[in-house]
Design a protein that fits this description.
Chain lengths: 158, 272
C-alpha cells in the first residue's frame, strides 16, 4: 500500500512526512517526526496524555487521522518552552509539584495552555473543567489545579 | 493494518462510496472510528471522509433547529441560540473530545456513551441520512432501533423543534467521576404543557439498553396530567419498565434499574 505525503506546521516549523493510510497523528508525531512529548496512554480518548493543539484548539492526537492535519498548525509540549526558559505553566508545574510520575503532564500542560490562551484569568471551576479530559493517577489533581491558577495569576518563580 | 482513506468533496459521493463498501466506515470527529482502528478493528478496511460544508452547518435561528452531522459539541456550546442543548453538549468528554466529537457520530456511540442522542431522542429529532438511493428523513427512534444496520448510511444532519421553555426540556447525566465520566444513567425529559397539562411527554434514557430508549411507561404516567407530586411519583415508579441495562465497570444492571426512578423523580421535581 502506497504512502501518503503529508505536510503541516509542527511547533512553528514546516514538516513533510509520508504516512500509511489510517495512521493517527500521535504515531506520526512520535515515530516519524521524533517528537516524543505527546504520550500514548489509552488510544481511546479517555486519558488525554496525547493532547495537542491543532490550530490552537485542543485535540487528542491518538484519535486524529494524520492526513486530516495537512496544512494545519500543530503545537505540542516540545514547542512550549521559550528558548532556554520554561513556559510559565511548566515553571508553575515544577513549583507546585504538579508532576509526579509525569505521564499525564504533557497532556495537562497542553490542556492548560488551551485554556489560558483564550481565558487568561480562569476561575478554579474553569480550570477543573479544562483538565476534565485528562487523567492523573498520582497527584489527586489539586497540585495541578493550583499550578495552573498560579501560572494564570503570574505567581510563578522566575 | 493500513486502511485506505477516501476523501470526497460532496456528501453524495461519500454516501455512494459508503453504501457500496461493507468494510467502510465514515470518519466524523474520530472518537469512534479512530478508536476502533487503534484497537486493531480489522473489519474496517476503508475510511470515508467528506469535506462538504453542508455537514458543519448550524441553522438555529427559527423554531426548527438543524445541526449538520459534523457539528462538534464545542460549536453547539458556542452557539447562544442552542442554549437548550448546552447541558447535554457540556456533559460529554473533556474539552478535547468536545472539539472533536460530532452530533452525527454521537448517534452511533454505544452505551455508556451517546449522551447527546438521549437529548435528541426526548426532543423527537429527525435524522437526515443519505444512502445509495438519495437522502431521506428518519425519526430518531426508528434510526436507533436499526442502528446496527446503519453502518452503510451517511448521516447528514439532525433536526428538532426548539422546546417552548427551559422548564419544558430537562437533562441530567449521572456519572461517578466528577466533573466528567461515562454515564451510569442519562435522562432527558421533554414536557410540553398545554392548558396546564402535559401534552406529548417524552422521557429518554441512556445506558438503560443497548441503544438510547424512550421510557414509554413513564411517559404514559405523565401524559395529560399536571406535573404534581402524584404524577411525578407515578412516572418515577414506571421509569425502569421496559429497560434492559447491562453491567459494566460504572454500574450494574441492578443498580441502574434501582436509581433510574430516583433520578427521574429529581429531574421532574426540578431538584439538583
Amino acid at each position: 500500500m502506497s504512502k501518503i505525503p503529508l505536510q503541516f506546521r509542527h511547533n512553528g516549523r514546516d514538516v513533510a512526512i509520508f504516512v500509511d493510510g489510517g495512521t493517527n497523528l500521535l504515531v506520526a508525531l512520535r515515530e516519524l517526526i521524533g517528537d516524543m512529548t505527546p504520550k500514548f496512554g489509552c488510544g481511546q480518548g479517555g486519558c488525554g496524555t496525547c493532547s495537542v493543539l491543532i490550530d490552537g484548539e485542543l485535540h487528542l492526537s491518538c484519535l486524529t487521522l494524520a492526513e486530516t492535519v495537512g496544512g494545519r498548525s500543530i503545537e505540542t509540549l516540545d514547542g512550549m518552552k521559550q528558548g532556554p526558559n520554561l513556559h510559565p505553566l511548566q515553571r508553575a508545574f515544577a513549583d507546585h509539584f504538579a508532576a509526579q510520575c509525569g505521564y499525564c503532564t504533557p497532556g495537562m500542560l497542553m490542556a492548560a495552555k488551551a485554556l489560558l490562551d483564550r481565558n487568561p484569568s480562569p476561575s478554579r471551576d474553569e480550570v477543573v473543567e479544562a483538565i476534565s479530559g485528562n487523567i492523573c493517577r498520582c497527584t489527586g489533581y489539586e497540585p495541578i489545579i493550583n499550578a495552573i491558577l498560579a501560572a494564570a495569576g503570574g505567581r510563578v518563580s522566575a | 493494518m493500513a486502511v485506505t482513506v477516501k476523501t470526497y468533496a460532496s456528501v453524495s459521493e461519500a454516501a455512494g462510496a459508503l453504501s457500496s463498501d461493507r468494510s467502510a466506515r465514515y470518519l466524523g470527529g474520530g472518537t469512534l472510528v479512530m478508536r476502533a482502528l487503534n484497537e486493531g478493528d480489522v473489519a474496517i478496511a476503508t475510511v470515508i471522509r467528506a469535506q462538504d460544508q453542508a455537514l458543519t452547518r448550524i441553522d438555529a435561528s427559527g423554531p426548527r433547529v438543524t445541526l449538520g452531522a459534523g457539528v462538534t459539541f464545542a460549536r453547539v456550546l458556542a452557539e447562544r441560540d442552542l442554549a437548550f442543548l448546552h447541558a447535554p453538549a457540556r456533559s460529554i468528554g473533556g474539552p478535547a473530545v468536545r472539539n472533536m466529537g460530532t452530533v452525527g457520530g454521537n448517534l452511533f456511540a454505544p452505551s455508556p456513551y451517546g449522551d447527546f442522542t438521549v437529548a435528541l431522542l426526548a426532543l423527537d429529532a429527525t435524522v437526515a441520512v443519505a444512502g445509495g438511493f438519495g437522502s431521506r428523513d428518519i425519526p430518531i427512534e426508528e434510526f436507533l432501533q436499526a442502528r446496527d444496520r446503519q453502518a452503510g448510511t451517511l448521516v447528514l444532519s439532525v433536526s428538532c423543534t426548539r422546546p417552548a421553555s427551559s422548564e419544558a426540556f430537562r437533562y441530567r447525566k449521572i456519572a461517578r467521576i466528577k466533573p466528567k465520566g461515562g454515564s451510569v444513567v442519562t435522562l432527558a425529559a421533554h414536557l410540553p404543557i398545554s392548558g396546564g397539562r402535559i401534552a406529548g411527554a417524552r422521557i429518554a434514557l441512556g445506558s438503560m439498553a443497548p441503544t438510547q430508549i424512550r421510557a414509554r411507561a413513564a411517559e404514559r404516567a405523565l401524559e395529560g396530567r399536571s406535573l404534581d407530586a402524584t404524577t411525578i411519583a407515578a412516572a418515577a415508579s414506571a421509569a425502569a419498565e421496559g429497560t434492559s441495562p447491562s453491567d459494566n465497570a460504572l454500574g450494574s444492571a441492578w443498580y441502574r434499574r434501582e436509581i433510574v426512578g430516583v433520578y427521574l423523580r429529581r429531574l421532574l421535581s426540578g431538584q439538583e
